[in-house]
Structure formats: C-alpha cells, structure tokens
Amino acid sequence: MQAVDGGNSIRGSSQEGVMAAVITLTTDFGQKDGYVGTMKGVILSIAPLARIVDISHDIRPQDLRQAMYILSTAVPYFPPSTVHVVVVDPGVGSARRPIAVRTGSAYYVAPDNGVLSYPLGEPDSSVVHLDCAEYWLPVVSNTFHGRDIFSPVGAHLAAGVPFHVLGTEISDAITLPLPQPERLADGSLRGQVQHADRFGNLITDIPMSWLAEGMGWRFEIAGRRIAGLSITYAAVARGELIALAGSDGLLEISIREGNAAETLPASAGTVVTAMPHAIP
Amino acid sequence: MQAVDGGNSIRGSSQEGVMAAVITLTTDFGQKDGYVGTMKGVILSIAPLARIVDISHDIRPQDLRQAMYILSTAVPYFPPSTVHVVVVDPGVGSARRPIAVRTGSAYYVAPDNGVLSYPLGEPDSSVVHLDCAEYWLPVVSNTFHGRDIFSPVGAHLAAGVPFHVLGTEISDAITLPLPQPERLADGSLRGQVQHADRFGNLITDIPMSWLAEGMGWRFEIAGRRIAGLSITYAAVARGELIALAGSDGLLEISIREGNAAETLPASAGTVVTAMPHAIP
Amino acid sequence: MQAVDGGNSIRGSSQEGVMAAVITLTTDFGQKDGYVGTMKGVILSIAPLARIVDISHDIRPQDLRQAMYILSTAVPYFPPSTVHVVVVDPGVGSARRPIAVRTGSAYYVAPDNGVLSYPLGEPDSSVVHLDCAEYWLPVVSNTFHGRDIFSPVGAHLAAGVPFHVLGTEISDAITLPLPQPERLADGSLRGQVQHADRFGNLITDIPMSWLAEGMGWRFEIAGRRIAGLSITYAAVARGELIALAGSDGLLEISIREGNAAETLPASAGTVVTAMPHAIP
Question: Which one of A40, A204, A271, B148 has the lowest number of neighbouring Cβ atoms within 10 Å?
Fold first, then answer.
C-alpha cells in the first residue's frame, strides 16, 4: 500500500511513525446514517493501524464557517503530521476540485470550497489538486466523495504515501474571508460571535490580547451591557451575563450555569462591542 | 483467551491478523446512557487490540429494517473478516436465540430476529446458535445481551476464536422479506423509500441498473413529479427536487441544499414510481 | 514521557501493559463543538497507543448525579487499570481542586466536586490533589480544564506515570450523599428513580436482592400500580407497564416497546414503592 517515500513527506517512514498516525474526521454527516462508520471502514482497509478521532459530525449541513472554526480550535492539540479529513461539501459531484493541503505541522484533505482557508493561509502551506485516481476507491459515486475520495486519500497519507504524489500542485485553491474584528478610532473594539457552543457560550472573534491591560472594559451584545471582564464563571452569580477569556484566547460571552445564546438571544454573526475606560 | 484455531476460521492466526481485527457496532442504544461505552469495555477486556468502529447507535428503537439497511451500506467498505455486532433486540430476555453468521467476507453477531437477513441470504453463509456460555460474560442479565452475550462473542471472534466453536450450527435462522421493487407491465418501475438520511435524502430500493439507458425517465413521489434524471445535486437550482443515483447504486430523491423528507413529506415506505419515455 | 515507576502504580511497566492502556471519557460537552475531539488530540499526543473509549458526552450540563450513575454502571466492565476521565465541572476556573483517585481496579481523573463519590467510597481508594503542573498542558485556560489538566493527566497515567507523582495526597475530597433506598417497618421498600434511559426505562436505586424471594411484590410509581415482578420485557403485552430486574441488579420500571419515562411521566427523583405480600 505504501509508496516509496520520495523525501517530501513530513512523516518519518519508521514503523513507529506509521503506528501513531492519527486521522481526524470533521463532517456534517451526523452519526445516525452510518456514513461516518463507512468512512472509517475505508480508512482501516487502507491504513489498518491509523488512529481515527472524530472532531465533529454535527456541523450544520453545509456550514463551511462552522467547520472552519471548530477545526481551527482542535487542530493545535493533535500530534504532528495528523491528517485532518474535512467533508462539508455542498458541491459534491460538481466540478469543484478535491484538494489536500500540507502545512508545517499537519495534513488536510477536503473539497476545494474554502473550508481549508485557515491552513491555506499559513505561510508554509502547499496544496495539491487530488487528481491521481489510484489513491481513491475504484468506483467513485457522485454523492459521497467522503467515502470514495477523501477517506482513502487521508488513509494513504496516514499509511505513508508522500503528499506530492497524490495530485498536481496548485496555487489557486479557494479561500473565504476570515473573521475581521475591528479597532475603532475611539479605542473600542467591534467583532462578531463566531460560534455558540452546546452550553450557549458565545465565542467571539476578538482576541483577548486586544483588551489592553490597565484599562477597564465594558461590553455590549444584543442590546445588553456587561460591566467588566471576569476571570472565571464562578466570578458572578448563577444566571448572570459574564465576559471572559475563552479557552482559545478569544473574548467569550456566557451566562453562569445558563445559556447565553438562547437567553440574549445571539448566534454566529451577532455583533459584540468592547469599550475601554480608565480604571478610577 | 484464544482457543486453538480449528481451521474453520476465515482469519489467519498471525499476530498481524489479530492486530487488525475490526469490530463494528450497530445498535438502537443512543450514546447518552453509557450502554455503548460499556460494550466497548467488555470488548477491550477480551480483545485488547481490537479496533472498534461505531456504525450507528441511533437506529430508531427496535427498527430492524433501518438497522438492516444502514448495515448493508457500510459493510462492503470494511476489511475482510470484520466482526459486525448488531443489537436491535425487542425480544431481549425472551426465548429468541442469539446467533452468529459467517459469510465469505465477514462475521455477524446479533439476535435471531431477522436483522441479519442480508448476510443470511448470501449463498456461502453459515449460522450458529450461540449456546456456548463460556464465550459470554459469567453473569447474563435479562435486559442487556448487547453487553453480556453479543459483545463478548464478537470480541472472542476478533481475538481468534473459531466461528464453529461458539455454538451449534442451525439452518432455520429468521429472515425478513427484503425490499421488492417491481417492474410493471408498461415498463415503469415501482419501489419504496428505504431510508431518509440526515439531509432528508430519500434512498429508494430501485436499482439504478433498472433505469435503462437510452430512455428518458419521469418520477413520481408523494404527488410530486420530477422531470428527469440528474447526475449531481449541482445540476438543479437550490431548493429544487432532483432524482439521481445515490452512493450505493440506488435511485435517490433529494432537494438541492434542502430536505426532501420534510418538504414532500416522505419517509421509509413512501411509494416512488419511475416511468420511461422515448427520448425525442 | 514516562517517569520511573516508583512501585506505587497498579499497572505493570511492560510494553504490553502500556499498549493495552484504556482511557474513558465522560463529559457534558456534547459532540458537536469539537471539545471531545480536542481532548483526544491531547491524549494521543502524550500517550500515542492509548485506547480511548467514550462513555457518554451527553450528561445533562453540570448534572453530577447523572454522571456518577452512568459511570458506575460502565466501570465494572473495563480492563484493570483503565483510566476514567470525568469532566462535569460547574466550578471550572474557580478554586475547586483537580483530583485523581486510585482504587484497587481503576484510576479516575476529575474535578473535586463529588462526581467521584463512588470510587472515593471504596475502602482501598487513595486521592491526590493534582498540583504538579508538569503533567498539565503548558498553558492552562480558565474555562477548559478537560483539555488543559484532566486529559493530559489521564494520558500520563495511561502512559505509565505513577499515580503518586501527579500531586499531593489528600483525605478531604468532596463526596455527595449516595442514593438511600429504605426498608420501611411494614416490610415495604421505598426508593427513587436514578436514571431514565433513551428507551424511557426507569432505573431505580432499589437492589433486586432486597426483593425477598418467596414473596409476591406490588409496585407503585407516579400513581400507577404494577401487579408483580416479571422476568423479561416479553412477559407482558406491548405498551404495558412492567417491573423487572435491570441489567445492573436494580429494580427497573419499563413499558414494553414503549417509553415509561414519558408515559407516566417520571424522571430522576420520582419515588417508587415496593410492597410485599404472601404468595397465596
């Protein structure tokens, strides 16, 4: 199964490297229909020792931005050379290309629809158009490339096939505009909610590093005001709104032991503003 | 733990074969109660190197037909000698027998209630009534044979125990009638929806191979007409009904970036008709 | 990664022992946000050969009792020395301590909020306050200790780090009152529903061993009466209420091929009474 390593692969060719190969899956397939299990069958048929990890299969159908966000929070915590297979694919069966991306620390396999905008934006990334059908399943359907193209390519990468043999290098892969929080002239910050999680926590696109220390901050979201920044959920009473540093270094709006997304209400795209003031 | 291989096992007895042993799980247990995790604990206690893959745990409670359909779409993509454990078991604790089935390419462990009708219909299949309690857990409850009988038997198979020692060979395992699409006298085809997936795609039981090439086709489902066959979702505008080849070679009715099951509405059992006409 | 085993670890230091190391995860994180996948990335970065099993990620947000119950039913079925990581953590970021518990058969890693009351109640358990930051991720957030503390500590245990080096031994870990079914003066039993599962089965806290054989029993729950004890679901007609032995040796109230939790209705905390009578 393994092609000879042409020297362009990050992964070593030692048995140990192959054993530890990790493949993650991020899709909008849900878990009820067996589609994800089928992809895992394909992967284990090609790379029997691969470790498969589900990141999420509950991406909202065809929501590329949610997939991008969730993937970006998980990726930094995986071992080097992990292969991330991402299948959110409204254009399946059309002329959209399947691609793979290699960065300094990971591989990605996905449709060319912008869902890999974050890794594509890394300075050392390279991209191939997956046009070598010998790394796909022998029969390719028009509706399930997750099974027929993306899983087998990911498995071949995990099994040691070098990146560059999977297809033709390209430089015009599609990227989507990334979140653009703003620093306004009066010193205040303006961003948006990127994601509402299961607990109703609202993760914004405003980096905590923009909230200069030595200043006090007030926040506004969905017509509600929050008086200052807190360190932990426990800093306020149950049911109270709170602004704090989320686990990925972004400003987060929550309700202690409550659901901010439902209560405000707010969701991806809701505007959030941070206004500084001198600490008296 | 491993009995000596009596020569009747498909799987080789090499270390490599044992390491790659894959066990899949298909149940109606859901994922919230810990039942599935418990089954995996049992499996790893007996076969520490088995690779466990979830096919689905969201089979509608006690819906044998949904389990049969989903399993049938996933099974062809797993490595040879994969052990498929299926627990949809309305008769748990009653006199219904636990069985295992061996085909030319896979093993199955399940209650004898018809859920294994597809593998039982394969020409080279053999069946044992699982009546050797030494391959079960020492204590067997009346309500959770997934934990007490099916998981341990599946794990023993994965660990190399030969199929025929697990029980007594039988020839009267229960089978359910399989889907019966019809070719009518006027050349039209009549079938049913087998499954509505997470996206609302309606997978029918009409094989694409029945839709003779060189003819045009019209479709009817739930009082709606579809004018022709398309190649991909992208062939129609968003929100439009479409008939196309599903990923398993069956006719599928979908709405591009919409939900056909909810919109029509339609579900398992809904009649679908295909009518040929000469291409002008 | 592995510290020298100081002799206090249950697990042998053999390669085989390390290979078979199993880590389970029980959280209230759900599966849609990628939090669980991120934890698995952390674990595989530290313990590449660990086998990770999900017990449940659908614990009701911050419901310690549900987590305790579900964990207690699954734990007995895992291999010796399995590491159980439990993250239901309303106090994340506050002064509540992270702890690890070792019993005669397993390890546990969790916040010190009572969720480990069952293992803490075992006679041979020991507890450490996880205060050795070298076994955590280098940067610790205030909101996601599942990723930053509990997963890395669990992975280090699975990789062979001895229990006692992870922190300082303590004896004041928090425990919650355990279920207290009662034997009343008139011989009847009074308990509560502990858990309603996906099928609507109501698992109580009354041990079957309390229902003396040789007596008949009547049951009352939510104003409904059940005439006797049955052996299996199949003993009654579809849709009928039934009292039987659940799979963990506790009295269970169910509706055959129906949903007792919704029909009665009943849920965790609902009172159930068992009244003995002489068999005529």
Answer: A271
Dmax over CA atoms of chain B, in Å, equals 70
Chain B residues touching residue A52 (CB < 8 angstroms): 53
In angstroms, the Cα distances linking C223 to C242, C258, C269, C273 are: 14, 18, 15, 10
Task: List, for residues A2-40, the tens digit of each pLDDT value.
Answer: 333 333 333 333 333 435 599 999 999 999 999 999 999
Q: What does the block give as tokens for B142?
A: 């009346």
User: What is the C-alpha separation between A254 and A264, in angstroms, rounded?
Assistant: 10
CB B60 within 8 A of CB B120: no
User: How far apart are the C-alpha atoms of C91 and C149, rounded to whole Å?
Assistant: 14
Residues A176 and A120: their CA atoms lie apart, in Å, by 10
**Better-predicted residue by pLDDT, B280 or B261:** B261
Which of chain C's residues have a Cβ under 8 Å away from the Cβ of B29?
198
- Scanning the structure block, which residue is given the tokens 């909810």? B262
* A chain contacts of residue B56, beta-carbon cutoff 8 Å: 31-34, 37
Contact list, C67 vs chain B (CB under 8 Å)? none
Nearest CA in chain C to A31: C31
Which residues of chain C make contact with A246, given a CB cutoff of 8 A?
141, 143
- Residue C231: list chain B partners with CB under 8 A: 93, 142
- pLDDT for B257 equals 86
Supply the pTM of this predicted model. Answer: 0.92
- Long-range pairs of C122-126 with CB within 8 A, sequence gap ≥ 24: C125/C101, C126/C101, C126/C102, C126/C163, C126/C169
Q: Measure the CA–CA gap between B75 and A114, rounded to whole angstroms.
A: 32
Closest residue in B to A139 (Cα–Cα) = B247
Contact A144 B247 (CB under 8 A): yes
C123's CB contacts (< 8 A; 6+ apart) are none
CB A49 within 8 A of CB A4: no
Q: Which residues of B touch C (CB under 8 A)?
A: 29-38, 40-42, 44-45, 48-49, 52, 61-62, 90-94, 141-144, 147-148
CB atoms within 10 A of CB B275: 17
Contact B29 C74 (CB under 8 A): no
Round to the nearest angstrom and report the end-to-end CA distance of chain C: 68
Alpha-carbon distance values, B122 to B116, B118, B126, B180 (Å):
10, 7, 9, 17
Mean pLDDT of chain C: 91
Position B166 scores a pLDDT of 98
Q: What is the predicted pLDDT for the residue at A247?
A: 94
Share of chain B above pLDDT 70, in %: 92
Least CA distance to C256: which residue of chain B?
A: B90
Whether residue A32 and residue B252 make contact (CB cut-off 8 A), yes or no, is: no
Q: How is residue B65 annotated by DSSP? A: H
Residue B17 has pLDDT above 50, yes or no: no
Residue C133 pLDDT exceeds 60 = yes
**Shortest CA gap C231–chain B (Å):** 7
Q: How far is residue A248's CA from residue A73's CA, in Å, rounded to a whole number?
A: 7
Which residues lie closer than 8 Å to A132 by C-beta, 6 or more apart? A165, A166, A167
Residues of C with CB under 8 A from a CB of B: 19-20, 22, 24, 26, 31, 51, 53-59, 70-71, 73-75, 77-79, 82, 195, 197-199, 231-234, 244-248, 252, 257
Residues A50, B55: Cα–Cα separation, whole Å:
17
The DSSP line for A228-256 is SEESSGGGS-TT-EEEEE-TTSEEEEEET
Distance from the C56 Cα atom to the nearest Cα atom in chain B, whole angstroms: 5
